[in-house]
Write a structure and sequence with these properties.
Layout: E1 2-4, H1 7-12, E2 20-22, E3 34-40, E4 55-56, H2 59-64, E5 70-74, E6 80-81, H3 96-103, E7 109-113, E8 119-121, E9 124-126, E10 131-135, H4 138-142, E11 149-152, E12 159-163, E13 171-178, E14 185-189, E15 194-202, E16 208-213, E17 218-221, E18 224-226, E19 230-235, E20 244-247, E21 250-254, H5 263-267, E22 271-273, E23 280-285, E24 292-295
Parallel strand pairs: 1-2, 6-7, 7-10, 8-11, 9-12, 10-13, 11-13, 12-14, 13-15, 14-16, 15-17, 15-18, 16-19, 17-20, 18-21
Antiparallel strand pairs: 2-3, 3-5, 4-5, 20-24, 21-23, 22-23
Length: 298
């Protein structure tokens, strides 16, 4: 088996038509490599096109022989990763187009591996029925999870993730959405039967962290919202059966300078120091009967 270092090397490869192992997308061991086989045009699946994740064109193959038209196909396609489409996760490069390409590939579950520096985005759209799931290989060894962070690039109109208003299904799981000033919103849950699991949203100082369409049913489990100007905002008209369900909602409120907490409240642990902003924050965990609350649509 031939071994190559990157996808660029795969595209330029002119050797025999055999299985090729690629060690990374951009560089060695960056998570975007895999095993590939050259498929001539006559043996490709119906509708196969270059998507820079599962199928890749080859300048080396086609330049040598015009009859050798085809594509490189990734063999292991069980768990589609955003790394396959070139997401770097270095906290510097813009990974928006790479992650969006993964979401549009047709798979129903897209995995986003944990990186220490996070992924920079400017606005992702979640197709109908598609789930974006954060993963961490360390959890398999220690049982402790670290969730990938989606860092929104500053810019007017930029946002985190939105679902399509006329779509049904889809979810976000085990992710952190980090905002800053001058953004539109963090997450817009406007699809019917949309759900979040283990999602944290923070840092939206002048925009809502989470927008929820009251006309669409959504379920949010272990949702954390903190350090936001407006953590939760409802939009749209309520409809029959369009309840918004929260399982274990947790939020943090920053103490306003005009009314600081009393020393008694601080001693009781109701307020704690804030690492991300000057002042104190109050942590509050709401519990209801069966640990669930349905917000009445008014």
């Amino acid at each position: 088996m031939i071994t190559l270092c990157s996808i660029a090397a795969l595209k330029a490869y002119t050797g025999p038509d055999e299985i090729v192992r690629v060690m990374g997308y951009h560089c060695l061991n960056d998570g975007g490599g895999g095993t590939f086989v050259w498929r001539r045009r006559t043996s490709l699946p119906t509708g196969a096109i270059t998507d820079e994740g599962i199928f890749f064109s080859s300048s080396g193959k086609t330049s040598n022989n015009s009859l050798n038209q085809g594509l490189w196909e990734r063999l292991d396609q069980d768990q589609v990763s955003a790394k396959w489409y070139g997401a770097r996760g270095d906290g510097i490069a813009d990974d928006n187009s790479a992650i969006q390409s993964a979401l549009n590939c047709g798979a129903l579950r897209i995995y986003l591996p944990y990186t220490p520096d996070g992924y920079c985005i400017s606005g992702l759209t979640l197709p109908a029925g598609v789930s974006l799931i954060g993963t961490d290989s360390r959890r398999l060894r220690t049982g402790l999870a670290r969730y990938p962070v989606l860092k929104i690039i500053p810019g007017q109109g930029n946002y985190g993730i939105r679902s399509l208003p006329d779509a049904t299904g889809g979810s976000l799981e085990q992710l952190v959405i980090a905002g800053t000033t001058g953004l539109a919103f963090g997450l817009a849950a406007t699809a019917a039967d949309f759900r979040t699991v283990d999602v944290s949203i923070y840092g939206f100082r002048d925009a809502p962290g989470l927008l929820i369409d009251r006309g669409r049913r959504s379920v949010h489990t272990r949702l954390h919202i903190y350090d936001c100007c407006c953590g939760l905002q409802f939009t749209g008209r309520p409809e029959m059966g369009s309840d918004t369900v929260f399982n274990s909602l947790r939020h943090m409120l920053r103490a306003p300078p005009s009314s600081p907490p009393s020393s008694h409240e601080i001693k009781k642990g109701l307020w704690r120091s804030s690492a991300s902003a000057t002042g104190l924050k109050r942590t509050s965990r709401r519990r209801y009967k069966d640990d669930k609350v349905l917000f009445d649509q008014i």
